[in-house]
Amino acid sequence: xxxxxxxxxxxxxxxxxxxxxxxxxxxxxxxxxxxxxxxxxxxxxxxxxxxxxxxxxxxxxxxxxxxxxxxxxxxxxxxxxxxxxxxxxxxxxxxxxxxxxxxxxxxxxxxxxxxxxxxxxxxxxxxxxx
Length: 130
Hints:
Elements: H1 2-11, E1 14-20, E2 23-29, E3 33-35, E4 38-44, H2 48-55, E5 58-65, E6 68-79, H3 82-91, E7 106-120, E8 126-129
Antiparallel strand pairs: 1-2, 1-5, 3-4, 4-7, 5-6, 6-7, 7-8
């Protein structure tokens, strides 16, 4: 999980895929934070992505850097504790211009039953689970 979080942070931007009914939806994300031994992402409850995650929490994300890419499939689980939200905001201070831990909009999710595959054109894929 540490390796996945590091890759996502170093990539800077990763793409999160959800579904909206039968239509796939993909958008850029930038948060990846380990809190209490789980890998978290953050969004706002008012966004369509939040509604899609709540309707179907199975997601995939993909990131690319330095000729390697990472795909992660798993289930997102909301953590509604203020401590989890604050930890994310502390890790990403730039978010504090738009969010606060108790604003009623900020939400964080952790990945459960995740399978991460590191791939490259020059070496065999490597899979890890967490």
